Amino acid sequence: MKKRLYLELENCIGCRSCLAACTQCGGHEERNRNYVYDVNPLVNRQTMPLMCLHCVNPACARSCPAQAIQIHETGAVLSALVEKCIGCQNCTIACPYGIPKFDTEQNLMYKCDLCIDRTKDGSPPMCASVCPSNTLQWLTDEEIEAKQKQFNLDNGKWVTSMPYLEGETNVRVNLPGILQGVTKLF
Amino acid sequence: MQRDKFFKEIENVRHPNETLVKTHCSYCGMQCGMNLRVNTKTNKIIGVEPRYDWPVTVGKMCPKGVTAYQQPNHDDRILKPLIRDDASLKGAKEGFREATWDEAYDLIVKNFQQLQHDYGKDSLSVYSGVSMTNEKCYLTGKFARVGLQTRYIDYNGRFCMASAAGGFMRSFGVDRGSTLPWTDLHETDCLFIAGSNTAECHPTSMFRVWAVQERGGYLIVADPRETPIARRADVHLDLRPGTDLALANGILNLLIKNGHVDEDFVNNHTNGFEETKELVKEFTPEYTSELTGVAPEKIIRAAEIYGKAPNAIVMFARGVEQQVKGVDNVSGYTNMALVTGKIGRPKAGVATFTGQGNGQGGREHGQKADALPGYRKIANPEHVKAVAKVWGIEPEEMPKEGVSAYEMFGLMEQKVIRGLYLLCSNPAVSAPNLNYVREQLKNLDFMVCADFYLSESAEFADVILPTTTWSEDEGTVTNLEGRCIKINKAQEPLGESKPDWQIHVELCERLGRGKYFSHLKTAKDVSDEFRLASKGGYADYYGITWDKIEKQDGVFWPCKDENDPGTPHMFLDKKFYHPDGKAKICALPYRPPAEEPDEKYPLRLTTGRVVYHYLSGNQTRRINFLRDMCPEPYVEVHPETAEKYNIKHEEFVRLYTRRGEAEYKVKITEAIRKDTVFVPYHFGDDKSINLLTIGALDPMSRMPEFKACAAQIEKLELKKVQ
Q1: CA geometry: angle at B721 spanning B710 and B652, to 5°?
Q2: B366: left (phi over 0), alpha (psi -120 to 50) or beta
Q3: pTM more than 0.90
Q4: B95 contacts B84 by C-beta, under 8 angstroms
Q5: Interface probe, candidates A17, A25, A40, A47, chain B, greatest B C-beta count within 10 A
Q6: Fewest beta carbons less than 10 Å away: which of A79, B48, B64, B264?
Q7: What are phi and psi for residue A153, nearest 5 degrees?
């Protein structure tokens, strides 16, 4: 059963477990490939994780002159192939979310590969495995659909971005506002 | 064990040439389940895998948990005993030389015996901690009272859990940190969380907290800071530090006035209602608002939500406990559950977030100055008799009650205590009023420290004994629910390090007390004796075997015999542990903090944690990821306050109180009250905020008031920074 990374941004508590967990994934060489932003650092310290959204038609791969960025059959957009990457950094400029990073020492781009060694077999990526606040979840399409129904707003302005932001993505994001439509128990 | 909605069958990823060892995190009271990845060729821990099969945390971990595996093989480990020959160097990192265990033991025995010969048995003291297994905690108590024969033993739980323990004891007659399992949290209708920065201190509770709101339930948070949970709360009671009791009384008054009293429950199962009702009458929303600084409408709304909730859980942590009236605060909030009858059934009750890994178990097994294993009391001759029998001593040989952790430093000053055996604790960072505490450590005649890193406190020692980390030994701990769980061994002890229990046994043999200790050859031997010693006590662990823990995903105490499955929910039979079986609703007059702001010190200083560090930071400050995320302390200041003092973001300021001063980088944030500043306490040396905190103690729990004292802030001139 296909599962997807699903982000419920409002849940983020800024603990950066996802960053710590990312360093633990095989092949990540103890470098994290995801980020947590302070949305309004001097006010109430709201944070949000920024993960690769694994676009269906990724700008990073489209812009790569060397075809170094491969798309796995699961939809995961992989890190640049070492033997192909020419270090031009087109991908880092092209990505609207600022995900691909550049290792100047190795002259090589690296980015989230959705823990492909785990997710290809159905295991959740490390970030979603550990996320203590359920900001990052690993769900089936049915579960995501159920979420969408549960939180459908009655004001006619669906503030969440599902199914996608700019272009179609394999990762689903739910922007803040999720609790607006919740009916209180009492 | 019942699986809840968060539980998913997920197979762990297995890497070639590795085994996974099921265990639990080395840090806070959540004790999140984790698998340690162990290389089968080198037998070394090399990484971590989530433990999806653990029902409490289902694979979730905070950044401390994810990186905890880096602790055992860290370069900073102390691998051999260290001896300081020149006592004048005490308090510095330098001046230690490596020694053999025999040499270290001989030196300790010689000095301990000399001190006891010259000044009496009670000239020695043991200062312990609760980040270690029940077995080690238990044996530390026996080590002090039977091995060293001293009355002076206490532990750092006085800085962590003592007020919750005191409050529960007074209200319920028993102290189990949570009256219900954590797997109930998300099923309740209202969470009332006071003085807990849950998102940073117990992050792996958060998916359950958010789930309450997702279901349409309510979240009420009482905290001076707009923490991540306060930010999303339905009501945020932004009270002044140190005024919790007024708030609790104010809410209780409204609950009674608005008809939310469960009269059957109050009449049949509690005492003290009428008296309390009278006392809280004066705490009208307006008067409560005057004392606490919280708007009256917020207090009214919070009381309405809690009162109407079919099920609700009142939870609290150090924010309310680390005050001179911590015990009263705990009882004050507990009153809310008792008056409304929201206790003694699933999905409703009272719980405290345990700070230290074994904060619960460690206080039940005889490390407290006044307590013996099984939560028995030294003052009770029957209790002494029961434990003396297990230990093989005469009841009259049992040393009398000692003093609390902070008070031990007072006895050091008076030269009543001259020798110290310190383990599993770092008071040179974690105690209040540090200038004084450090001076007392320096003036000791002889000090031993058992640790696996050179902590700030170890720098004061004459001898340092290298101990194992949590992953190099086995045993049990009791998490914040009261669930006894098993810690498993993943690798052999590094270097010449030894588990604390083994050091206790070997030292006692050399001190001529071997006949009481020599039979303890393994951690399992200690466990068996500890179960027996707790048998019949309030905290009865007799029926908790390692097999049962494995089969049931942990066992909740009390568990009286092998057929008893344990007690996940307390008081289901509405029987409390006071002699008449009733709980006590406490009438508690409000008292202000020990030190109120004045002209010279116009601000309130409060302290707390960040998500990246654990306690004094001795362990987490050494882990690269955690240190990079939070390398230094800072002071949170409200923008309006900053403007008043002409301070800008990331500038340096000097913060001072009547006890000391220190310099901090400023973090300007609206998340703090205008009259309050906040500094995290995980840092040592001249960065420790405990140089400034006050040593005022709660009269019952003897817990210091870390959470409120009067302070002043001063902009640092540029030249001073340079």
Answers
A1: 45
A2: left
A3: yes
A4: yes
A5: A17
A6: B264
A7: -85, 150
